Request: fold
Amino acid sequence: MLAIIIGTLLRTAWRPSCTFAPGIHFAAKTLLEAAVVMMGATVSFDTVAAAGTRLLLGIAATVFATLGVSFALARALRLPMKTALLVACGNSICGNSAIAAVAPVIDADSDVVATAIAFTAVLGIAVVLVLPPLAHLLQLDATASGVLAGLTVYAVPQVFAAASPMGLAAVQMGTVVKLVRVLMLGPVVTLLSVLKAGWDRTQPTPWRARAKAALLPGFIVLFLALAAARSLGFISESAVQPAREISNMLTILSMAGLGLEVDLRHVTAAGARVSLAVTLSLLFLGAFSMALIRILGLG
Reply:
């Protein structure tokens, strides 16, 4: 979290030259993906198995409920259709990654995409910083804290940063819950592709190709493979601690890189209505997530 704060403040006060861009991008993307992959060796699906099918159904319900409410809020604030869809998908699933995946499907203009990503990036960091003290204030245990992080934080590595203060069990649960949310991106993008094809029959959308391209990226597949190997006992206990330390080191570096890509001045450029739509959507997501945690009897 300190790495994110320092990186963001530095980026806001100083605009790095092109010389620094490749390194910042490498830290924010490549090292981030490597940290997630290594994290897979420390995660056991047994953590989520105790919660059972009700948790999985609850995650799906949270995604689709937030998707619908976010879109309705954005349209009520008179945001354009495409902007409303980007805001809804970003908040409901996985932030910038969802926005980037949905944008080509709905043919969103670059300035619309940039606006949605700018505020989502800043708000995503705010969630990472606020969640640990909030979980403590609500007296949530490690399992419930992990579920809350997985349901509300945008990016998989940011879940790691947000859940770490609550312990390893919170990190494991939060990561698995978050990955289930990420898996929802495939059906959502496919649905939007089909709807787009219906809206624009004169230029049919190759929804099968786009849906395929929007499925899980390679680093998530590797994460799941290592997590499955860990769950099945193919990764020994002696290898777990080194993997955790490497993942932690890479996560710190990637969080610094992410911070160096966020300029707080872009929040004002995002526009009041977009900012309000994203904020209200996130508040609904948090409230719905807490309701789910209570219904499931967690924490």
User: Anything to note?
Assistant: Residues 190 and 211 are 5 Å apart (CA to CA). Residues 204-215 have pLDDT under 50 and may be disordered. The radius of gyration is 19 Å. The longest helix spans residues 110-137.
